[in-house]
């Protein structure tokens, strides 16, 4: 692969970048057990944001993996999951805030720990959203890459440990200019009581539109989603 | 969490507010801390798409993911506490004769209808158009504030392999859910006009809204 950009986000870190129409972002779990909480926004019309509700109901799925599209609230595809060695990404768990992290892991302040201080997904995403003029109103339901939460027949939620192994990766193809806001932080339902978020590698490349055919044609809904997306660029 | 049916002893004649909301209409109303809101499915199998905001600061709003993980269950019923995006309890479900309500399915929109059904379905009425209309007239809320909502009376089961389906409603005429407010809230409802799937049994019908002190 000819990478335009390669960067490692340390555990607890946050980042954002615009993945341009026709580019593909690979996220790699370097050590296993990573979790990446993610928001997507249309980079040119930022009132258009990832809608996990629309994403799930349009494709009749509660989990997300290769072949699925990530929809905005405007019926367009912000990203298509064109490769996935992990098999399950979670749409249910969301991100913890400072209080939840404090009560789960204890106090971990910058004063004592310097850059190893305990961060939380909500604040990480708020900071990163803020850099683009976005606010807490834009922090909607987040996608947790590399994590799996099962639902029993009664509705109980069960976090599945070990869903992602070292070297597992997921690739997001952008059919529109998509602002990706993310943080590498533990899943709120991860039972591990130690604060130990894992690093992930971001790798950006130019891609052929053909890589998204798997997603575009995986169901009739996605054919229409891509038509809506292409109409944004007329 | 198992399904918990729980009836209310509140009498309609004691309500301080009582209104029938026709199918396909929006409703924006304040409910004060300590008041109880009943949403009643008058004719059965009617999805009532609902959002909650803090009256004091409408940027604080219902947070579906926090609500689900705090109760460790996908479905809402009696005992469910609805949490805000700041982590505060907003309302508690204190009575529920339906037993299951959805938070994954979201509200219908012109745009999502084009994806789900056909490009030509764009011009059918939708919940998110209702939300925008109510927000525009009220002035305190805008598109930015519209996140994922609760679908009262809607049945969207998730299977063990991660599948998701819109099932025929488990609601019936006269079923209701009651919520007691823990803070002053703005309630934003669209009485769902969706005609393309069984969430309203293909026949949207009125809902009744009652508030008690």
Question: Explain this structure to me?
Answer:
Chain A is 20% helix and 30% strand. Chain A has 234 residues and is an alpha+beta fold. Chain A has one domain. Chain A has a 6-stranded antiparallel β-sheet. Chain A has a 4-stranded antiparallel β-sheet with strand order 2-13-4-9, with helices on one face. Chain A has a two-stranded antiparallel sheet with strand order 5-8. In chain A, strand 6 and strand 7 form a beta hairpin. The longest helix of chain A has 12 residues. Chain B has one domain. In chain B, the strands form 2 sheets. Chain B has a 6-stranded antiparallel β-sheet. A 4-stranded antiparallel β-sheet of chain B has the order 2-9-4-7, covered by helices on one side. With 213 residues, chain B is α+β, with helices and mostly antiparallel strands. In chain B, a hairpin with a 5-residue loop joins strand 5 and strand 6. At the A-B interface, helix 1 and helix 6 of A face helix 1 and helix 2 of B.
Furnish the topology, listing elements before pairings.
The complex is a heterodimer of chains A (234) and B (213).
Chain A: E1 3-9, E2 14-19, E3 23-29, E4 36-42, H1 52-59, E5 63-64, E6 69-71, E7 77-84, E8 89-90, H2 98-105, H3 110-113, H4 121-130, E9 143-145, E10 149-151, E11 157-159, E12 169-173, E13 178-184, E14 200-206, H5 213-216, H6 220-231
Antiparallel strand pairs in A: 1-14, 2-13, 3-12, 3-14, 4-9, 4-13, 5-8, 6-7, 7-12, 10-11
Chain B: E1 17-21, E2 26-31, E3 36-41, E4 48-54, H1 64-71, E5 81-83, E6 89-96, H2 110-116, H3 127-138, E7 150-152, E8 175-181, E9 185-191, E10 207-212
Antiparallel strand pairs in B: 1-10, 2-9, 3-8, 3-10, 4-7, 4-9, 5-6, 6-8
């Amino acid at each position: 692969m000819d990478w335009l950009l390669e960067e490692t986000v340390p555990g607890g870190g946050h980042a954002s970048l615009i993945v341009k129409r026709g580019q593909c972002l690979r996220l790699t779990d370097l050590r296993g057990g990573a979790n990446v909480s993610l928001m997507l926004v249309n980079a040119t019309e930022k009132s258009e944001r990832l809608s996990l509700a629309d994403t799930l109901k349009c494709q009749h799925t509660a989990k997300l993996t290769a072949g699925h599209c990530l929809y905005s609230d405007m019926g367009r595809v912000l990203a298509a999951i064109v490769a996935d060695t992990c098999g399950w990404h979670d749409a249910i768990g969301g991100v913890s805030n400072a209080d939840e992290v404090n009560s789960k892991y204890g106090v971990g302040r910058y004063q004592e720990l310097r850059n190893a201080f305990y961060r939380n997904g909500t604040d990480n995403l708020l900071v990163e959203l803020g850099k683009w003029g976005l606010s807490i109103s834009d922090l909607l339901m987040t996608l947790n890459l590399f994590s799996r939460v099962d639902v029993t027949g009664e509705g109980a939620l069960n976090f599945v440990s070990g869903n992602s192994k070292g070297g597992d990766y997921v690739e997001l193809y952008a059919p529109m200019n998509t602002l990706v806001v993310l943080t590498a932080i533990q899943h709120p339902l991860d039972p591990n009581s130690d604060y130990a978020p894992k690093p992930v590698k971001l790798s950006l490349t130019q891609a052929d539109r053909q890589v998204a055919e798997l997603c575009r044609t995986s169901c009739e809904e996605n054919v229409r989603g891509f038509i809506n997306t292409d109409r944004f660029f007329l | 969490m198992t399904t918990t049916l729980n009836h209310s002893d509140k009498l309609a004649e004691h309500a301080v507010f009582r209104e029938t909301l026709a199918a396909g209409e929006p409703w924006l109303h304040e409910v004060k801390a300590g008041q109880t809101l009943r949403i009643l499915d008058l004719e059965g199998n009617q999805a009532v798409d609902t959002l909650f905001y803090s009256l004091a600061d409408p940027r604080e709003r219902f947070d579906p993911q926090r609500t689900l993980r705090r109760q460790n269950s996908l479905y809402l019923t009696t005992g469910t506490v609805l949490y805000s995006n700041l982590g505060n309890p907003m309302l508690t479900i204190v009575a529920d004769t339906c037993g299951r309500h959805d938070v994954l399915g979201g509200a219908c929109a012109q745009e999502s209808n084009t994806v789900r059904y056909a490009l030509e379905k764009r011009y059918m009425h939708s919940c998110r158009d209702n939300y925008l209309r109510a927000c525009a007239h009220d002035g305190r809320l805008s598109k930015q504030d519209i996140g994922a909502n609760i679908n009262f009376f809607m049945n969207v089961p998730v299977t063990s392999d991660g599948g998701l389906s819109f099932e025929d409603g488990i609601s019936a005429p006269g079923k209701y859910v009651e919520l007691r407010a823990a803070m002053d809230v703005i309630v934003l409802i669209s009485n769902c006009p969706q005609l393309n799937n069984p969430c309203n049994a293909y026949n949207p019908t009125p809902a009744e809204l009652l508030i008690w002190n």
